[in-house]
Amino acid sequence: MTSHQEGPWLDDAAGRLIRPYTVSGGRTKPTTALDLLSMVMATGSSPQPHMGPEHSLALGLCDGPTSVAEIAAHLRLPAVVTKVLLSDLVDCGALTARAPRFHANPTDRSLLEAVLDGLRQRL
């Protein structure tokens, strides 16, 4: 019995029904440079007809700016497979992508101290 909450790729008893590399057509290299923190957003254009349901599911998660990592988590797919799917959508104009924005000083001491404090609280 396929779980409707988890999508068409998962079965309650068997787990993943389709191998991740099958979803991307065996491709492992996206044509668009995407980072896990890259933000993607739907443009309002439809994906090309030859794209599969996985593309539509990914596109449906991009109503507002959404990170690649978040989309991969929702789809329960490896990041590289998600990047290939999103790259296809960028290539056909259905998504826009922008690189993550970092602070002017990526080694800002206050940021590092805040991260350290957060890690200590979890211990």
Q: Give me the number of helical elements.
A: 5
**Which sheet architecture does the biggest sheet show?**
3 strands, antiparallel
- Which class do the helix and strand fractions yield? alpha+beta
Low-confidence stretches: 1-6
Amino- and carboxy-terminal Cα gap: 40 Å
- Tell me the strand order in the biggest sheet: 4-3-5
Proportion of helical residues: 25-40%
Q: What assembly state would you assign to the polypeptide chains in this entry?
A: single chain
Radius of gyration: 17 Å
Shape: elongated
Mean of pLDDT: 78
Q: Strand share of the residues?
A: 5-15%
Number of strands: 5
Helix and strand sequence = EEHEHEHHEH
Pfam families: DUF742
Organism: Streptomyces litmocidini
Protein name: DUF742 domain-containing protein
Short description:
Helices cover 38% and strands 11% of the residues. By secondary structure, it is of the alpha+beta class. Strand 1 (10-11) and strand 2 form a beta hairpin.
Write the layout of secondary structure elements.
Blueprint: E1 10-11, E2 15-16, H1 20-23, E3 39-42, H2 53-60, E4 66-67, H3 68-75, H4 79-91, E5 95-98, H5 109-122
Antiparallel strand pairs: 1-2, 3-4, 3-5
Helix pairs in contact: 2-4, 3-4
